[in-house]
Amino acid sequence: MSIKPKLGLFDLTMIIVSLVIGVGIFRSPAIVAQKAGTPLIFFTAWLLGGIISICGALTFAEIGSRFPVAGGFYKIFSHCYHPAYAFMLNWSLVIINAASGVGVALIGAEYLKTLLPLAWQSYLSVKTIAGLSILILSVLNYLGIKMGARTQNVLSMVKIAMLVVFCAALLGPHKPLLVPSFYGHTTGLGFVKALGVSLIAIFFTYGGYQNTINFGADVQQPRRNMPLGIFAGIGIVIVLYLLINFAYCSVLGFDTVQNSKLLAADLAGSFLGPWGYTLACVAIFISVLGFINTSLMSNPRIYYAMADDKILPPIFKQLNEKTMTQEFGLTFFVGLMLISLCVFDDFDKIVNYVMFIDSLSLVSAAGTIFIFRNRAKESGEAANDDIFKLRLYPWVPLLFMLVLLIVMINVLISATLMALYGCIIFLAGFPLYLLLKKVVN
């Protein structure tokens, strides 16, 4: 039975906005400001990151349209590459997804910590709050309690509403960005280097656009609605991100942005007072819980698909008959999260660690568009109105892949140890693949 397209232009636009806007925007701008050094590089990086994300989203939209299967982002690797390389990529993604969830948990913990009594506000309390959040939500998932689509949509709308409220700070009195301070003194090679390093955290915050690969067969009139929905969705994200960053810099000052770990709360407190600070902390923590819960629900499904392909042992796809929970898969993922929480104690380190492998996987995934196009050409592909075809091919995917490769190089240069961790995990996937191939088969 073929999939019947049900998503209209508005549906696709809102899905893309929900996929991209996470909680990174409430923490990453501080890292970007530190790396950028000047407001000009800071805002250039955010705009460039959005444009490249559009290129990525369009590329993955065509891939998804050509290969409309459940779990498309996982499946394309095994469909287009050697099984060993596909396993190494997916094994790495399994690990970094846990670290990514921990990074978000630490953001929420940093915001909630400030509302605790002073005696509890120790360094350890951040990890404690993050760990308890993960454990409590994992227990709920063991019991079979799920957050449905409506709940997740509400949480997404809360985040969008928060961004709009924070942008409203621009309507009040603020510190204007003076022209000399805006441009700073970074030029030439220094400008390019600062821009490249800034993009690491930028792409962490823009992440999610790759999931357009899962909707290639669900969109009505794909040739028209796919590009329009992607441009509209990421366009909204770019405008919101630029506005809130301008609010951060204008209201708090660029120097404060560079040194603040609680940007959103500081911004809310500056124009709404103490209650605004408290409300922002609580709202962001709730958004973090929503992200972690989604991660706990979705990642064991990746294990299920890998076990179904006989890449992982069958125990990874065992379901509890009453709750329909993958108890072993969930336990494994929670274990990875807790290990990551013990190993990493800094959000900046997690971003560098995640983005090295994530960039490699994105480049590899985007590269499949050339394989799909070549196979279609060899088979004498006929015109098909149900397939979304990217315009400006091959320049759009090539630009996307080039920039992501630059991000990888910047991680390797600026955070060599974190990149090395990623390399070790990726390479460890090869002997593990050989072992599991013998054991499972």
In brief:
74% of the residues lie in helices and 0% in strands. By secondary structure, it is an all-alpha fold. The model is unreliable at 145-150 (pLDDT under 50).
Annotation keywords:
441 residues, mainly alpha, 74% helix
Give a verbal description of the structure.
The protein has helices spanning 9-20, 28-36, 39-66, 72-80, 83-113, 123-142, 149-167, 179-183, 188-206, 222-252, 254-259, 263-272, 274-308, 327-343, 347-378, 395-414, 416-440. The longest helix has 35 residues, at 274-308. It is globular. Helix content is 74%, strand content 0%. Helix 2 packs antiparallel against helix 9. Mean pLDDT is 81; it is low at 145-150. It contains 17 helices and no strands. The protein is mainly α and 441 residues long.
What class, by secondary structure content? mainly alpha
Assembly classification: single chain
Following the backbone from N to C, one meets helices and strands in this order, namely: HHHHHHHHHHHHHHHHH
Bulk shape:
globular
Number of helices: 17
Helical amount:
over 70%
